[in-house]
Design brief:
The chain has an eight-stranded parallel β-barrel with strand order 1-2-3-4-5-6-7-10, surrounded by seven helices. With 264 residues, it is of the alpha/beta class. The chain is globular and about 50 Å long. It has a single domain, classed as Divalent-metal-dependent TIM barrel enzymes (TIM Barrel), CATH 3.20.20.150. It is built from eleven helices and ten strands. This is TIM barrel protein. Keywords: Carbohydrate metabolism. InterPro entries: IolE/XylAMocC-like, Xyl_isomerase-like_sf, Xyl_isomerase-like_TIM-brl.
Length: 264
């Protein structure tokens, strides 16, 4: 299924927007785009919500017919337990995370121990934990960790854009992770020369206009055949003013949805 994530509304959620979009607003925008899935990913206001506010947000998603996935950073036991509890409220079947959080950088052995302790509860609840590919850990090491633990509730969230910062090739990350992918972050990316030809900027691009060989991902991972959700995100640079940036963000979202729906 094609879904949207909070990173598709990055500037609309931010305090640089004249009227920052609420979570309910993002859910309503998702429904208006005829999309049935939303990933609440790294969304700070969720962490601060009261239990009543969380239940209200979950009820709004159900009323709109939008399924929910969750996303956080880190694998500390209390974090994983908290997001499993949130998954129960939202009827979410997937939680995306990363090995490191702003507050914790566990060793490989410590992260593995934490995951082994947390995953039986995820298995019992029917919730999958998806660890994202990113530059702070080699893709081969992430795959090896998932293979060692060998839990049906543990897989990989594939974001090929992230691994470039580790000097890994996106196509290599796709091929290495393919058997273990349970979630895809779908965005395009490109390099642009800095003014004066003194380096490059690596950032987002409209879907289909950048360097991401998305057809290769589809051929290799087979997300549609395997029931793996594709979550639209953006790395949209600030466009000089809020009106232009938010308009561009919305245009990128519409283009991404259209491109993914037409891709095969």
């Amino acid at each position: 299924m094609i879904g949207l994530g909070t990173y598709a509304f990055f500037w609309q959620h931010s305090d640089r927007s004249p009227e920052p979009l609420s979570l309910r607003g993002a859910l309503e925008e998702t429904r208006a785009l005829d999309v049935d899935l939303f990933q609440i990913c790294d969304f700070a206001p969720l962490e601060a919500m009261t239990d009543a506010e969380v239940h209200d947000a979950a009820a709004a998603a159900r009323d709109l017919g939008v399924a929910i996935q969750l996303g956080t950073k880190g694998v500390e036991p209390e974090r994983l337990a908290r997001h499993l509890a949130l998954a129960d409220v939202f009827d979410a079947r997937l939680v995306r995370s990363m090995l490191f959080s702003p507050a914790s950088r566990p060793s490989a052995a410590e992260a593995e121990a934490w995951l082994r302790a947390a995953l039986p509860a995820y298995e019992a609840a029917g919730v999958v934990l998806a660890l994202e590919t990113y530059e702070q850990i080699a893709t081969a090491d992430l795959v090896a960790l998932v293979q060692r633990i060998a839990s049906p509730a543990l897989g990989i969230c594939l974001d090929p854009a992230n691994v470039v910062a580790r000097l890994e090739r996106p196509v290599d990350a796709i091929e290495l992770t393919a058997p273990h992918v349970v979630n895809v972050h779908a965005k395009d990316f490109a390099f642009d020369r800095q003014p004066g030809w003194v380096g490059f900027t690596y950032s987002g691009a409209p879907m289909g206009a950048g360097l991401h060989d998305y057809p290769h991902l589809l051929r290799t991972v087979h997300p549609r055949e395997r029931g793996i959700d594709e979550i639209v995100e953006h790395w949209l640079p600030w466009q000089g003013d809020a009106t232009t940036t938010i308009r561009t963000e919305r245009e990128w979202t519409r283009r991404a949805i259209e491109t993914l729906r037409s891709a095969s």
